[in-house]
Design brief:
Shape: rod-shaped
Largest sheet: 6 strands, antiparallel
Distance between the termini: 86 Å
Number of helices: 23
Low-confidence stretches: 680-696
Oligomer: single chain
Strand order of the largest sheet: 10-9-8-13-12-11
Length: 696
């Protein structure tokens, strides 16, 4: 029997109205009227015991177990049963919604004088004195069977009346209580600027009381888990804890959009009620209530009442989400200005992508976000992951964004950022994603897309899309500017590469010397983790490091014999001459100190300024190592080419005197890494011999 019906039965048959009706029937007819719960074997209402019971039984108080050898079952219909005292009793169920909630028992009578005689013999057989037997039997009313059944009908009519009245009264009281809870919770929501764990926990307390639960918590979906965002007193678990969705009542409630009640505890004695908190088709969370055994099974009316309250909680969560969304949007718009300023200093595609991804991360709720570039010879996706996401889910979102099957036609390159999540394996993929994507445009050219996607039930609204469009506008301009800058830089690089090749030829240097110096310099710079701008400086410094030699006599540069002191001084002047040349070109002006000092030595014995150690600009130290290494490993008119091993030994011996030791180590590390990767480093001589000149 549901807990509510049991309460109604107890309340109804303890009312003065029922006691008055039962007493009146007894006084008018002599029959006793009691009410029993055959399910729990309780006496709900009735006399202490019939008058003759003590003569034939030893029972102290009436109950289903005491009054009957075999108590009727809880779902018994109308029946005539002999009590243990040998008297006939009539029983009939009191129904509520078609279910027996109690049984009315009419007894304390016999139906004929023959029954009286049988009762006389029964009591006498117990050894009771004759006068006592006579008094006891005489007190038993003779009620014909049809008449007794009529008395039962009268008692049943009274029982139904008091049950209906009690149910209505309790229902009314519960509605008043429900209304009070709504008002209380509503005041909390309205007067609280931020629906935090404390205020939401208070609302959860009210909800739990509606179903007589022990404790409860509000869970929000996050990836494959629920996060505990608020809980009541007595909840076993911490705020922020993650609860698995799979194989849990809350998980089933979220999936089915239906309330789930499941047995729990040892032997299934207690229960868990999981109510999905829905806003339309979206699951904003789950209210999980832990139920004691006394509240099982849960009355459907209480579930319906909790469902109404759950909608209220869902509204509160929606309101909180909107507030948070507005705050994020405001923060996002504030970040737009910062983004615009930061993008102004970004000089390569990767830097722009990282800045844009960072803003997406701060401004939106998402599980997958990123940038897709599909123009200017690029076919690349940068994907930022938040929470647990599968590879198939990433491909699903990217296919929607790019408008193509990225499994069949994968991107040329893709980078995943997982500092706030990870790529996982899940039995069931989520295919209901909310997606916001905007085009990245530069002029009339669509160069790619900016996107955010979520599968936690949330949706992107117009304000989100407007913010995303604002970010895309800045990002598009930045990508366009970087692309233009890249083209200009590449054109310069090609021009300078052609010039450097002319210089190499004029000096009768091995073909590609300047380009190789450029390559080694950039490899060292990247190995040292220098910023993109510094690595680009090394590109042009490598190509132009000997431009000062254009002002020297060719017979001096090509002299096969040892130079005199004066000649050597003249040759050494090429560093200052080269610096003065690039210093006159605005685009190359920043190379001046690099070219000027690329012949300085770590121990201070170099030229032209005799700088020592860290006094030498870092890029000049790098250029010195790259220039010397290539000079050692290529044939010159005045010196033979060294083997790779010999060159490494000579570089190592010069580390700390001629060269910066860290720069030398970085060169070797970069060459080794390149060789291991199958590149054309000098540790892979076969490949190196056959390689093409590196593009500028």
């Amino acid at each position: 029997m549901p807990a509510d019906d049991r309460n109604i039965a107890k309340e109804a048959f303890s009312t003065p109205e029922w006691r008055s009706a039962a007493d009146s029937l007894f006084q008018a007819t002599g029959v006793t009227v009691s009410v029993m719960d055959f399910g729990s074997c309780e006496l709900l209402a009735g006399v202490s015991r019939c008058a003759h019971c003590h003569l034939v039984t030893d029972i102290e108080a009436p109950s289903p177990l005491n009054c009957f050898d075999t108590p009727p079952s809880a779902d018994s219909g109308p029946a005539r049963v002999m009590c243990r005292a040998g008297l006939p009793t009539l029983i009939a169920p009191v129904l509520r919604n078609g279910t027996p909630i109690a049984h009315v028992v009419v007894g304390g009578f016999v139906t004929s004088t023959r029954d009286r005689r049988r009762l006389w013999e029964l009591i006498s057989a117990k050894g009771v004195r004759e006068d006592s037997v006579r008094l006891a039997v005489k007190s038993i009313t003779v009620v014909p069977r049809a008449e007794a059944e009529g008395y039962l009908q009268v008692a049943m009519a009274c029982a139904r009346t008091v049950v209906d009245a009690t149910a209505e009264r309790l229902s009314s009281a519960e509605r008043v209580e429900e209304l009070r809870l709504f008002v209380t919770a509503g005041q909390q929501v309205v007067t609280t600027e931020h629906l935090d764990a404390t205020s939401l926990g208070g609302i959860a307390e009210e909800a739990v009381s509606l179903v007589g639960g022990d404790s409860g918590a509000v869970l929000r979906p996050t990836g494959g888990f629920f996060e505990v965002v608020a809980h009541t007193t007595g909840w076993r678990g911490a705020l922020g804890a993650l609860i698995p969705r799979d194989d849990t009542a809350s998980g089933r409630a979220a999936s089915s959009h239906r309330t789930v009640v499941a047995r729990s505890g040892r032997g299934g004695a207690t229960g868990v009620l999981a109510l999905p908190l829905l806003m339309g088709d979206r699951v904003l969370g789950v209210l999980e209530v832990r139920l004691p055994a006394s509240q099982l099974p849960v009355d459907p009316e209480r579930v319906a009442r909790l469902d109404r309250f759950g909608r209220f909680i869902a509204i509160a969560l929606e309101r909180e989400d909107e507030r948070a969304q507005v705050e994020r949007a405001m923060a996002g718009y504030a970040q737009l200005n910062e983004l615009a300023a930061a993008l102004g200093g970004a000089s390569d595609m990767d830097a722009v992508t990282k800045l844009v991804s960072s803003v997406l991360d701060k401004a939106f709720e998402y599980q997958i976000a990123g940038v897709v570039l599909s123009s200017w010879g690029r076919d690349h996706a940068d994907v930022v992951i938040c929470g647990d996401v599968t590879t198939a889910e990433i491909e699903h979102v990217l296919s929607e964004v790019a408008g193509r099957d990225t499994v069949a036609q994968p991107f040329g390159s893709m980078r995943r950022v997982t500092h706030r999540g990870e790529v996982c394996v899940r039995a069931e993929e989520r295919d209901e994603w909310a997606l916001a994507a905007v085009e990245l445009e530069h002029g009339d050219l669509v160069m790619g897309y900016l996107f955010v996607a979520r599968a936690d039930g949330g949706r992107y609204k117009a304000a989100d899309r407007a913010l995303l469009a604002g970010i895309a506008a800045h990002a598009g301009a930045a990508f366009g500017r970087v692309a233009l800058f890249t083209r200009i830089r590449d054109d310069y690089a090609k021009t300078i590469a052609a010039l450097s090749a002319t210089l190499d030829a004029g000096e009768h240097m091995p073909a590609g010397h300047s380009s190789r110096v450029m390559e080694y310099s950039m490899m060292i710079g990247e190995e040292l983790g220098l910023p993109f701008e510094d690595v680009e400086q090394l590109r042009f410094a490598g190509l132009l490091h000997d431009i000062g030699k254009t002002g020297l006599p060719s017979e001096l540069l090509l002299k096969p014999s040892k130079l005199s002191a004066d000649e050597l001084q003249t040759v050494r002047a090429h560093a200052e001459l080269g610096a003065s040349i690039v210093d006159q070109i605005e685009f190359l002006k920043s190379l001046t100190p690099v070219i000027l000092h690329h012949h300085e030595r770590w121990d201070g014995s170099g030229y032209p300024s005799g700088l020592h150690a860290d006094e030498i600009p870092l890029l000049a130290r790098i250029l010195a190592v790259a220039d010397s290494f290539d000079a050692m490993t290529t044939q010159r008119s005045y010196r033979k080419r060294l083997s790779i091993a010999a060159a490494r030994n000579e570089m190592m011996s010069g580390a700390g005197t001629q060269f910066d030791p860290l720069v030398v180590a970085a060169l070797f590390e970069a060459l080794d890494t390149q060789a291991l990767a199958g590149g054309t480093g000098l540790l892979a001589p076969a490949a190196a011999k056959g390689r093409q000149e590196l593009p500028a």
